[in-house]
Every structure is written in structure tokens, then in C-alpha cells.
Amino acid sequence: MMDAPTTDRWIRRLNLLQLVLAGIIIMTPTVWMVLSSLKPSFEVTAYPPTLVFTPTLDNYVELTKTTPFLSYALNSLIVTIGSTALGLLFGIPAAFTVSWTRISWPAILTLAARMAPGTLFLLPWYVMFRQIGMIGSYTALILSHAVITLPIVIWVLLPSFDGIPRSVFEAAQVDGCSVTRILWRIALPLVASGIAVSAILAFVFSWNYFLFALVLSNGDSKTLIAAAFNFIGEGSTQWGALMAAATLIALPPLVLAALVQRWLVSGLTLGAVKG
Amino acid sequence: MSDAAATLTHDRQRLELSALSAPAVVFTVAMIAFPVIYTVWLGFQSFSSTGKQSYVGLANYARLVSDHEFWHGLWVTIALYVLSLALQLVLGVWLALVLFHAKRLPGIVRSLFISPFMMPPVVAGMMWLVILDPSLGAANYILQSLGLPPSEWLASPTWVIPTVALIDTWQWTPYVALIVLGGLQSLPPSVYEAAQIDGASPFKTFQRITLPLLLPTIVTAAILRSVDLLRFFDIIYITTQGGPGNASNTLNIYGFRVGFEFFNIGYASALMLTLTAIVFGAVLACNRLRGAVAW
Lengths: 275, 295
Known about the structure:
- The structure holds two protein chains of two kinds.
- By secondary structure, chain A is mainly alpha-helical.
- In chain A, helix 1 (4-37) crosses helix 13 (239-259).
- Chain A has one domain (59-268): MetI-like fold.
- Chain A has helices at 4-37, 41-44, 58-66, 69-101, 105-115, 118-131, 138-162, 166-174, 179-190, 192-208, 211-216, 224-233, 239-259, 261-268.
- By secondary structure, chain B is mainly α.
- Chain B is 75% helix and 2% strand.
- In chain B, helix 2 (59-65) packs across helix 12, helix 4 runs antiparallel to helix 7 and helix 7 packs across helix 9 (202-230).
- Chains A and B meet through helix 1, helix 4, helix 5, helix 6 and helix 7 of A and helix 1, helix 3, helix 4, helix 5 and helix 7 of B.
- Chain A: Belongs to the binding-protein-dependent transport system permease family.
């Protein structure tokens, strides 16, 4: 029979083995995507697939030359930054008020909206926006994507505002501070990190969102995600360019998520789990 | 301060608070509440090909009951939901336990683990489309090198649902794991120590102590996944558009196509309201369950 420290060491090794196995399963598809994007075009579709090749950026060059990739990227940036800014602008004071008054129905309504299937809103929006000729406009896209960002901002910031001791606000009120001033001068600096996390999460989910832009954008305002469909359609053998597009589209959210990975989980569950 | 002055400050405060929440409230009413009410109204309308609309009462809902495509979509939605949720919860709890026992996780490892669900589902669909290609994909090459028969994956009416479930499981299991990990880390260490003193085996400890204590967290993860899984859209729309045939035509995909490919806005509204009711029903049921397993 083995003694306790030896058993312990084996359990630890077994655990590490499982961790590595999980890591490989999680990482392989992404690595394969990046590798495929760097392969010379004749090697992307080689069968059996090759692992050793001379990396090239040809696919990326091809992508920017043959498709309006850069203008799609610009559209994505405009819509994402616009909707994130709108989410923060509306969401920060709303979260503060909900935390202050304990009147929570606005927060709950935005959460319910986040749970409903997007098509539920898309149908009436389409009819409404078409009537006022706003299909394809940045305004329509930014407004629709703000439905994604607003609940994220409110629900990530609520616990942060709740965490500020009430005595801090009361002391400021005794000194004659108005509510707006308390939010601006006292509460905001205290929840700065929460605002950063909510902004990044809002950016990521707005960037990743597919459905709304699929219908509300047109040729000129198409976002990268909505255009992804076109890249697939443009010939099934153009895998190199397709994987180059996929890699570039995934890059901004992945880089941003890596920056805030430590604080991400509590934010992602919209307050359902205290992380 | 006199009473009058106090009331004045109080009124002023209320006014200020209203003003602060006003933009979000107005936005929510204009972009969420009003459109949903409008959808309810649209669900009672019929639009002809010339764009003329007429009130048809419950005709759209009557059509729904006798529509094979609807029942098929409901079946696909539920099959995909049950399969994906089961896979993600089982694998997620396993991965959470592995991460929990690894103690210290460097930031880079954590970043790698969250990368699947932080990337757009559309990108996940694009990359798996290439990997799972029936004739040139890497997945079939691996199967064949192991002496297994190749699969048609997304191109097979039989395998398309399990395949889509696998893609979604790849993407969201780490998310479930991180939620469950949070639950594990908040469990009191004393219960393990007591079990150890009693000489319980690791498996018994997990089955009798960890799992029951963890159930509320697992149900929370199930709620968060249910919301996404019941309205499954992105990956299917990118990879199969509901095909082959209608084998992966979920209710959300079906409703979208009825609305924006066939421009039957009235019927699509009825479909989407039904799907929304299903999603909220599932969330409420899970919430009940969470109450039952709370400790």
C-alpha cells in the first residue's frame, strides 16, 4: 500500500493530466483556425491536413483586397463603440438610482429583455425602422445593440454601487451635496473598476452580436459579424481567407476579455453568482 | 432646517433621481416595452404580399397548432436544448473540480479557458465548419487515423443536432465550469474536513457532500444556459441555416425565416411570442428548482 504523500502526489498528477487534456480540447480548434489562416492557399484544403508549412500572410492580404473587410471592420467599431457608450451613458445613472432607491423594475425589465429571443424585438423594429427609413443606418444599429449593452452595464454596476456604504452618501448629503453631485464626485470614482469591466463586457457582447445587424444593416453599414456570412458564401474552397476573417473578427473580444479575465465571471452571470 | 426646507430637499432629491434614471427608462420603454406590445398586435394581423394588413384574430395561433414545421422546430429546439445542457453541465462540473484542485491558475491559463465563449459564436461556427468538412476536414482525418468511419457531421440530417450541440458545448462548457468553480470556492472547508475525519472516500465525499451543496450553483448555470440554448441561432444560421433539409430548424431560426425570408410578419410574431413564453417558462421552472435545492 502506498503512503499518504505518494497517493497525494499521484492525485495531483492525475488532476494536472486532466487539466492539460481539457486545455488541449479547448485550444485545438482555435489554434487550427489561426494555423489555417497562415497556410498557403493550396495547403489549406490539403488532405491529409498538413501541420508543417511555411507561414504566409497571403490570406490576409487577399481578404483585404477582394472584400471590403476594412470598411466592415469600421462599421463594427462604430456600432460597438456607439452602443457601448450609450449603454454606459444610460446605464450608469440608472444603476445608481436603482441602488439608491431600491426600485428595481427598470433593471429587471432590461434583464427580461436580455432573456427574450432577439427576433421578438427584431420584427417590430424592422417594421418601425422601415417606416421611418432607418434600415441600414448606424442609428438603428447602435440603438438595437444598446439593448444588449444596457443590461450588462446596469447588472455589472449594481453590486458595485451596493457595495458603497450608505454612510458615505449620508455624510455628503449633510454637507449639502446634491444627488447628481454625489454620483459624479463620490460614487463614480469608487466604482471605476466596475465601469471598466462593464464597458469591456458590453463591447465584447455588442461586437459578437449577430442577429440584429443581419436585418438592420445594409451593404454600406454591414458589420463584420453580419458580413461573415458573405465570406462563407463566396466559394467554399477559400478556406484560407475565411479563417483569416474569422481570426481577425475574434481578435478584439479575445484581447479585451484577457485584460479583465479576473473580474469576468461575476459580470457574466449578471449578478446571479457572487464571484 | 425647517420642515418646509426638508420637504423641499426631499422633493428635489426625488426629482434628481427621476432625471438620472429617465434616459434608461425612456430607452427601455421605446426599444423594449413598446416593440413587444407592438409584436403582440402584429401577431393578430396578416400581411398580404402587397403589404396590405388585416386583423385576423387568433388565426396565426390556430395556424401554429396545425403547422408541422412549428412542431418540428419545437422538437429540434428541445432536443438541442436537452442534449447541450446535459453535456455542458456534466463536463462543466468535471472541469470545475479539475480547476478547483489545481489551486493556483495563472492569468494566461484562465484567459485560454474563457477564450471559447468570449469569441463570437459566428466565428466558432466558421471554424468548426472548416474542421468538420465531410471531405477535407481535420475531424474526419482524425477519425480515420483512429480506424473509425468518417462522419458527415453538419451535412447529415441524423448527426446535425448532436454536432451543433458539440460545438456549443465546446464553446460554453468553460463558462459553466467557471460558475461552478465560484460555487466550489464559496463552500465552507469545514465540511470536507469532517468528511475526511470520518474516512469518506473522495467519490463518496463528492456524491454526498459536494454535489448537494453545489446544486444551487449548478441550477443557476442551467438557467443562464437555458436562456441561450432555447433561442439557439448564431451557430446554426452560420453553418446550416436550419438544414440539411429542415433537420436543424430551431424555432428561433424558423421564426426568423418566416419573418425575414418569407416576410410573414404576423405569423412570425406569433411564433416568437410562443418561443418567448417557452424561454420564460423554463427560467421560472428552473428558479423554482433553485428554491427547492437551496440550503
